[in-house]
Design goal:
476 residues, mainly alpha, Sodium/glucose cotransporter, two-stranded parallel ribbon, 2 strands
């Protein structure tokens, strides 16, 4: 198993280093020089969005809530579809290379700085989620502690993107996508065959929960297990967060033409949902056959005698499935693919975050784009990943996809409404209202999260942001 994992990891890291031969300046590093084909655009976007949250996080959420775990990847696919249909052309026509540059040109530097800082927070939360997911995978496979696992994951994220930039993320994303599809198909077929379809799987879950004296698993059958408003809100926060994320916009700008950029984003919309479906099936299978130590204690000897296994942490649902139910070498390849999926997602997010910091904050202060910019953005990525390691060790018990929903929701509420107005209705919103919209929407989302207000916090944040922008419409 270790051999298969190492071969897969070395393949992807090698691609990142090989692609670094194309990088000789900041522009090529950050946007690929605008020469990427549709498939490289797809690899860039999908290599980031299909990461720990879409795989390990989806299986973890399915372990707890069943079919509603699919909303994360459905939301990601919807976001890519909207990006392709509505945003590719205006983004590329803007002449910008960051979303905050679009905001600055329309609303001024204060709105740019505010949006940059809020987006950095949202993206950083997602990087932390990738570190947690990769640490869970490594802890399942190797006898190492969480600190070492987090440092190893951050180190590989660094290698993945710091040499090749967008080219490394793009070509690595293509190879990773192919491997991940094979892994997902194998895992999905295994679960389907060994469970006699969904009904057999749900029957096994009901039996396991009854044996342990836990509530009936009827909600596992529902795509709205956490409530319609909550699950739909989560889906929308992911979809709209995709539109407000620098990393995915960089993929659009990297395309050699509008057609290539649109093709790449449409491919993502088509390819993402099946991976989420397979990871959801894995989470359901693990729920049917495994329990946490606390659940086993509550069940006494009944669960053990009934053949229920132990899972130390629900974040280990996918990696433990691979190690216990697939052949050793192929299982190693799957784990390597899963691990590099998470690593690539974190690396791509770190690239987007570093680009915002460098271009929209540091670059404005220095007022230059020199050869030294390449070194500066690489050092920024190093600093971001080290800080993410520290935060991940504090927040390691948080559900991975909860961090994902919060992260993308923050990006959407902070930026999407002013950004969309700048692209589609230029000159219509008063600049200071756009600034207030960014701050007020973000504060409202966080307050709703903290106070546990009814419905998903995303509704509150996005609603306030939209109201403020409507109040700021200029009279003709």
């Amino acid at each position: 198993m270790i051999a298969g994992l190492l071969l897969t990891v070395l393949l992807i890291v090698g691609i990142g280093i090989w692609s670094g031969r194309r990088v000789n300046d900041y522009n090529t590093f950050a946007t690929g020089g605008g020469r990427a084909s549709g498939w490289v655009v797809c690899g860039t976007i999908m290599g980031t969005i299909v990461s720990g949250q879409s795989t390990v996080g989806t299986a973890q959420l399915a372990f707890h809530f069943g079919l509603s775990a699919w909303w994360f990847t459905l939301g990601a696919a919807l976001g890519c579809l909207l990006l392709a249909v509505l945003y590719v052309k205006p983004l590329r026509a803007s002449g910008c290379t960051t979303l905050m540059d679009v905001v600055r040109k329309e609303y001024g530097p204060r709105a740019e700085v505010a949006g940059s800082c809020l987006c950095i927070i949202g993206i950083f939360i997602s990087i932390v989620a990738q570190i947690i997911a990769s640490s869970a995978l490594l802890a399942t496979l190797l006898p190492i502690g969480c600190v070492v696992a987090a440092l190893v994951a951050a180190g590989l994220m660094l290698l993945y993107v710091v040499f090749g930039g967008l080219w490394g993320a793009g070509w690595g994303g293509i190879v990773k996508m192919a491997l991940l599809y094979v892994a997902s198909i194998v895992a999905g077929v295994f679960v389907w065959r060994h469970s006699q379809g969904l009904q057999g799987l749900f029957g096994s879950i009901d039996g396991s929960l009854k044996m342990m004296g836990l509530p009936n698993g009827g909600d596992y059958r529902s795509v709205f297990a956490r409530g319609p408003l909550k699950d739909i809100g989560s889906c929308l926060s992911i979809a709209l967060g995709v539109l407000a994320t620098q990393t995915y916009a960089q993929g659009v700008w990297a395309g050699r033409s509008d057609g290539a950029a649109r093709k790449g984003t449409l491919l993502c919309a088509f390819l993402i949902p099946p991976i989420g479906a397979a990871c959801t099936l894995v989470g359901l299978y693990m729920r049917a056959h495994y329990a946490t130590p606390l659940e086993l204690t509550q069940a006494g000897g009944a669960a053990i005698s009934g053949g229920i296994g132990t899972i130390a942490d629900s974040a280990q649902a996918f990696p433990l499935f691979v190690t216990n139910h697939l052949s050793p070498f192929f299982g190693g390849v799957v784990l390597g693919t899963l691990f590099i999926t998470i690593v690539g997602g974190g690396a791509g997010l770190a690239l987007g975050c570093a680009t915002i910091i460098h271009r929209d904050i540091v670059g404005r202060i220095a007022n230059r784009r020199s050869q030294s910019s390449l070194l500066q953005i690489r050092l920024t990525i190093v600093a971001l990943l080290l800080l993410a390691v520290v935060v991940s060790l504090v927040a390691h018990s948080t559900l991975i996809n909860d961090l994902g929903f919060l992260s993308l929701g923050l990006r959407a509420t902070a930026v999407l409404v002013p950004l969309s107005c700048a692209l589609f209705f230029p000159g219509r919103i008063k600049p200071h209202y756009a600034l207030v919209s960014m701050v007020a929407g973000t504060v409202m989302l966080l307050v709703a999260q903290w106070l546990r207000l009814p419905a998903d916090p995303f509704y509150w944040g996005m609603g306030i942001g939209m109201v403020v922008c409507l109040l700021g419409v200029k009279k003709r």
